[in-house]
Input
Amino acid sequence: MNTRDYIAIEEQFGAHNYHPLDVVVDHAEGVYMWDVDGKKYLDCLAAYSAVNQGHCHPRIIKALKDQAEKVTLTSRAFRNDQLPLLAKELCELTGYEMMLPMNSGAEAVETALKAARKWGEKVKGVPQGKGKILTCSNNFAGRTITIVSFSTEEQYKDGFGPFTPGFETVEYGNIDSLKAAIDENTVAFLIEPIQGEAGIIIPPDGYLKEAKEVCEKHNVLFMTDEIQSGLGRSGKLFAFEYDGIRPDVVIIGKALSGGCYPVSAVLSDKEVLGVFNPGDHGSTFGGNPLGAAIAREAVKVLIEENLVENSFELGKYFRSKLSEIPSKHVKEIRGKGLFIGMELNESSGGARRFCEALAERGILCKETHTHVIRFAPPLVIKKEEIDEALIHIKDVLLMD
Ligand SMILES: *Cc1c(COP(=O)(O)O)cnc(C)c1O
Output
């Protein structure tokens, strides 16, 4: 079977809720992927930042194999010997008092929302069922009905109502909009420090710090969704570090397992995560020993291989080289670390054709929001590999 055969089968039997590039990958290593026809690609998407540690990192795969041969799932009816150590290591790394493990990012976001509502009632004293959560314009936090309830993207909601009440949108990056929306029943403000899906949107300098102060003043939980921007992607362990703040709640996922397994978590202090009592919330697979062992190793790899620093340094290099390309298509290049968005002019006919041309040349990226190409390679990438990508990126950007 070749590329076309696989695509035909998937089109026939799989629901069409995605529109992937026509590349059928059958194996990958580090920053490279190979398709079923043997063609090699440099991955500049890193599975939406889930494979920050690079594909099939040998240490993470070893942890996966070793743990798979011991025990994979206990459920939380019993304890296992990996979850306690993952919880301890994550708390020691990030300075939070507690963590709650889930699987997908969306589940971790839902967990944070539930924690905020319950904290609102039990700690802040908001009347039952009245807790309000503020979210941002152009947010992305997953695909459950509650999460799309506060999406501002028409398509994410179309046909999926009725929606969950209790959310109000504030304009991303606008402090007055946040101030105006807060009232006595507001329990939390949920924000991505850098908006990935919206097209690598960075709020104005100092905004996060000011937003944190406003929340603190009104006793509102400041919750950051670092599922994509976190764990080194932005050139810091967490993107909020650029503003020197400490959020009340941090949500992580994606690279928490190095792309080897769905593992997500909510990090916070006892005051917030302590609101959960046995039976309040859970997940059959959340905190399972296989996922926990993988996540422990994935986090160690991130730190011990200095991937956060590499992201910071090579991100600067990549962005400066991209901005030297004299292309009539480029409107703006923005980003932090290896979290880079290149916005093209409206007249350039959308980013998709550039991504397709790059794929032809062996560079895999994906358009986001029609006009933006996202460059977010695995953080193990080397300068020479960026130089290799730049040759092709330049070629493609000089097309008509
Ligand atoms: C990917 C993502 C999510 C959702 O994670 P899933 O694992 O796809 O459910 C939530 N928030 C942000 C910022 C993301 O990038």
Notes: The longest helix spans residues 105-124.
